[in-house]
Every structure is written in structure tokens, then in C-alpha cells.
Amino acid sequence: MVSVRGDLDLHCVFWGGHTPTEATPFVLVHGLASNARLWDGVARHLAGLGHAVVAIDQRGHGRSNKPDSGFDMATVAHDLELLIAALGFERPVVAGQSWGANVVVELAHRSPASVRGVVAVDGGTIHLRRHFPDWNDCAAQLAPPNLLGMAAGRLESAMRSAHPDWPEEGIAGSLANMEVLADGTIRPWLSRERHMKILRGLWEHEPESLFPDIEVPVLFMPAVADDDRHSRGWAADKREAVERAVRLLRRGGVSWYHGADHDLHAQHPLRVAQELHAETQGGLFS
Q1: Which of 11, 45, 163, 272 would give a disulfide with 63, using CB separation of 3.0 to 4.6 Å?
Q2: Predicted model pTM
Q3: Which secondary structure element, helix H or strand E, spans residue 29, and what is its range?
Q4: Are 76 and 10 in contact (CB under 8 A)?
């Protein structure tokens, strides 16, 4: 656990040692209702390439503290700023997935001196109010399923069936979103009440308004369908939003992951790690 403020300790998973090396350090940030272990494969490969890496459980998630407030975008981004200072990392690259990608975009805007750049993995352009102008509609449509009491073995079977191409680290990381109780059933580490507070903070976030003022480079890694030329709805909006973001940013880039899952960092850890490493060796983050 790393203490970032008086009332908040964040659980961290360290790879490649606790202190920075000459290689660019990385901080890895999960998405909504996820946890640090989804990054295990990426972190292992980055550490093998010489990087110091820290994956975190954000507030309310995993084994981190679970306060009842502070789930707005400004506060969770400030959590990362304080964590970077507590770790002693000098301007790491900070990668986030989904909601976590919006969080790292907010961090890049609020505290450019803290980061070398940020990576938005299938997120960073999420603007829920474009799809749900009314919060109550958003809350009704995107509320989490009730998994409390499900047998852990049933969840694992469903996970393996849904993601047959995922490496074992990805499956184990996804299962770690849940606490396994003494009776063999599961309970999400993130409570429903906190989940909805985070969702409200994401609904209120407008990342596109931030892009023209972000000083550090931003790399997008979006998942898209194998053939999205005729895509509609969310898929089309994602492509247009990412392309617009790259135009608005002072330094932006994109690497499309065709046919990938939303948790593409768990599905394709080697490719993600190799691309992140390459961007520190003469790329966006050099």
C-alpha cells in the first residue's frame, strides 16, 4: 500500500523493482470495476524490457481504501498525481484503460509536469452525455449487473468461454475484480454505490474540451471491429472521437487494435508492452 493522502492508501503492484531505472517508468491504471491485475501481462513484459512499472487499484477498487466520496474525475486524477510523487517516479508514462483512460487524460491536463505522456487504452474520449443527455437514463442503462452470490467457479467458466484467446494472466486478472468469500461465492471489490458515483463522474466528464490545452503527448489504443467501414452507433462515434482528438492535441498518436476486446491490454499484453516501449525509444514519449 502507498499512502497518497491522510485518508487514502492505494494498493500497488510493483514490477521491475521499487525504484526507477534509466528506462522510462510506467504507471498503469485500470478501468471502472476493474483492478491492477488486469495489467499483469503488460507489466511483466515492460519490466522485462527494463522499465520500472507500478499497477494500481484506484480508490474504491481492489485492495485499496474504499472511501464513500472523491469519485469525481478531478479527485481521482489528483490521486494519481499524489501517487506519482509518493513513488518518486520522475515523469512516468501513465497508461489507463476505459474510465481509467479518461482519468489519465484529466491528469495530463491538470498536471503536465507530473507525466512524460499518457496512454488511453480503449478510452480517453468517453463522453457519455452525447449518448445519454439525461443522467437518470445513463444510470439505468449502464448500472452494473448484480453478481453478488454467484459461484466463483461459474464466473471463471463464463470468463474462459467468453475469452478463449486470452492468456492466463488476463483471465486471472479479470477474476481478481471479485472477492471470493468463504462460501465460494463472489462479491465485487467495488460496491454498487461507489460504482454509480464513478459513473456519474464519468458522465460529467468532457475530455474533448481538454485536448487543445494538453501539453504532453497522448497515445490512443482503441479497439475496433475487424471491418468498421460501415459501423454505426458507438463504434462509429469512437473512431470519429479518436480521430478528432488526435487533430486537437498538440502531440497525439493512435494505434488501432482491430478485432480486439475492450480489455485489449489483458488480451494482447505483449503487443501493448512492445508498443509502449517503442514509444519511449524515439517515439511519442522519447
Answers
A1: 11
A2: 0.95
A3: strand 26-29
A4: no
